[in-house]
């Protein structure tokens, strides 16, 4: 168990608006946002140095560590830190190096690459292995891409935005839809990327999963839209009625499954009742024997269900598959149990527990920290 450094609590006690917290496991660093300040530290070090970014006045809403585009930065820049504030998105260069003590040293560099947001409330950022940066907010369903280049050109700045949902009319469409709509607005909750298949998945506040295919640079095409009612329809063919899987549930997170982990499974979705839904996405070429085509998928179905542990230990941890009916049965062999074990081992490769003790008059800092990774 690694405690949070005391310096973080000193800054937290002086905070006024909000606190966010998370991990950058690829560089062995934890991060915390307190109002307009971002701090990082090596969580494996007993007395870590606190690295801060406090050079801008606006509240920080989201951060993400993403790979850099090749050929843009010097070789010492190993990652890009994307910081979304209430006013703009800022790109910071991140340099990492191994120390003699076996830890990682991290340095942050200004890139002078900023993107004005013009009122957009960015809450989700995700980056692909090729350096593409996608983001969205709490006000609409638009999936945007931040592009950057080494120098300004005649008709483009160093930083810019591409709206892949409503290209060319994003501001007009977003304003009209929010002004005239009588329904509760739908917004992005999460964006995840499967680089092995060049797929981007988004989760909305209405539990709708959308699949996009990454094509040649700066192109992103929506290929599948899977609403919650369609997921429940798939589930109805697999199991009897269950109070854990009904029309009142919500999907709270999604995780991509790479081609190396499972060739027939693409995505895992977690419901607020603790059920894990495993999806497969298929295209026309999927039905051809021996086909290795990288065509974009055209449909998505629930293939397996993993239920949460039961109070009755004899029935805990069971699976249901699309090849079963009439109940919640166990799969004794096959791809799904092996996949779950692989993901469990990978998840616990670097155990970490973050804890905090704060006053009752402020938001619990530990609420934002993962319990175990």
Concise structural overview:
It comes from Ophiocordyceps sinensis (strain Co18 / CGMCC 3.14243) (Yarsagumba caterpillar fungus). The chain is mainly β and 373 residues long.
Written account of the structure:
The chain is mainly beta and 373 residues long. It has a domain of 168 residues. 11% of the residues lie in helices and 36% in strands. It has four helices and 21 strands. The strands form five sheets. Strands 17-18-19-20-21 form a five-stranded antiparallel β-sheet, covered by helices on one side. A hairpin with a 5-residue loop joins strand 15 and strand 16. The longest helix has 13 residues. The protein is globular, with a radius of gyration of 22 Å.
Question: Taking Cα atoms only, what radius of gyration do you get, to the nearest Å?
Answer: 22 Å
Low-confidence stretches: 170-181, 323-334, 347-373
Number of helical runs? 4
Order of helices and strands: HEEEEEEEEEEEEHEEEEHEEEEEH
Strand order of the largest sheet: 17-18-19-20-21
**Largest sheet entry:** 5 strands, antiparallel
- Given helix and strand content, the structural type is mainly beta
Beta strand %:
35-45%
Q: Into which percent range does the helicity of residues fall?
A: 10-25%
Indicate the overall shape. Answer: globular
Keywords: Nucleus, Transport
Subcellular location: Nucleus
Domain Nucleoporin Nup133/Nup155-like N-terminal: 2-322
InterPro entries: Nucleoporin_Nup133/Nup155_N (IPR014908), Nucleoporin_Nup155 (IPR004870)
